[in-house]
Design goal:
heterodimer; A: Nucleotidyltransferase, domain 5; 4 helices; 7 strands; elongated; B: alpha/beta; six-stranded mixed β-sheet
């Protein structure tokens, strides 16, 4: 009896099938891009609550108007100067009478118009976060010799205590309008 | 033509494509791993701004998305051309729907995760802060305080 050989399965079309699947996945999915600026909103306050007003020197006022122009400490400023200004303010430690008394007391107050563009707002937020991140990096370099993000949990907490992020957002004005 | 002729030296030998499926499958698995299925169809145009100090959203199950932008061309007849808020699959009719949305999303989470809930705000860079502020106020009312402004990672331009 002749030995019957099993016919080989033709795998020539396998590539086509796989390509089809690949293209299907390419079309129906998005590349992961869930990144962003993390912030914590303040709790909604009851009207009866009494707020302690911080000292004037401890507050750095940042204003953005409806034309996306920046006013820092009452003076027109450029966006690229903001980070330096915030760092100077927060890390002053009572040195200059115009800036904050200590990093713990330092507050950055930001106020924008309803007509400010979201892009500008993000840019300003980014600069503020950058200032704090740089300060924390410097501190952790000084204390532990590594950057803030490479620190352990406890060490991170410690650095965060030295430079707490105090960004306050005032209710926006409606000068330019958002319509 | 003789029956037992040696293979002629003329003509290129066929390239072996047997490993092609393997290569394509590898690509396929790569894409399956790094991508995720679109969960909501965008009804508003969103082009998020750039920032440098970005944080990656780790746990997807804790994140709910709020989209803000101008309705797409097809929907502009119905919803107009001013920026609107999209929650889930539909453009919201009023700002108050944000609270209901947050409550519904929070109900999906387990008890211990409820406090960890993160809202990712995907807003177009062209929109004005007015609508963003309204959304933020609603989030505060709903006690959803962990907010993430969705951005691309990249250098920002200083052009004042």
């Amino acid at each position: 009896m002749a030995k019957r050989s099993i016919p080989e399965i033709n795998a020539g079309s396998m590539a086509d099938i796989a390509f089809l699947l690949l293209i299907f996945f390419l079309v129906t999915t998005t590349i992961d891009s869930d990144k962003g600026l993390q912030i914590l909103l303040p709790q909604k306050q009851e009207k009866t609550e009494v707020t302690i007003k911080p000292k004037k020197r401890n507050v750095l006022n940042v204003l953005v108007n409806g034309n996306n122009q920046l006013l820092v400490r009452g003076q027109v400023a450029k966006l690229e100067e903001l980070t330096e200004e915030v760092k100077k303010h927060v890390s002053n430690n009572g040195f200059s009478p115009d800036y904050s008394e200590s990093p713990r007391l330092a507050i950055v107050s930001i106020k924008n118009d309803r007509g400010t563009s979201y892009e500008m707002y993000i840019k300003v937020q980014n600069e503020l976060l950058r200032a704090y991140n740089e300060l924390r990096d410097e501190k952790s370099q000084e204390l532990y010799g590594v950057n803030f993000e490479n620190l352990g949990e406890n060490a991170q907490k410690k650095v965060k205590e030295i430079y707490p992020q105090k960004i306050s957002e005032a209710e926006p004005e409606n000068v330019m309008g958002d319509k | 033509m003789s029956k037992f002729k040696k293979n002629s030296t003329k003509g290129l030998p066929a390239i072996n494509t047997a490993s092609l499926p393997d290569i394509v499958f590898m690509l396929l698995f790569f894409f399956m791993v790094v991508t995720r299925i679109k969960d909501a169809e965008l009804k508003v145009k969103v082009s998020v701004p750039k920032a440098t100090e970005v944080v990656k959203l780790e746990d997807k199950s804790l994140v709910s998305f709020v989209f803000v932008g101008v309705p797409t061309e097809k929907l502009q007849e119905v919803y107009g051309t001013s920026p609107r808020i999209q929650l889930n699959d539909a453009i919201s009719k009023s700002i108050e729907e944000v609270i209901l949305f947050i409550e519904a999303e929070r109900a999906k989470l387990t008890e211990e995760n409820k406090a960890k809930m993160i809202i990712s705000l995907k807003a177009d860079k062209e929109v004005k802060m007015g609508i963003i502020t309204d959304v933020k106020q609603e989030l505060r009312s709903a006690n959803a305080l962990k907010l993430n402004y969705s951005t691309h990672q990249g250098q920002i331009e200083y052009n004042d």
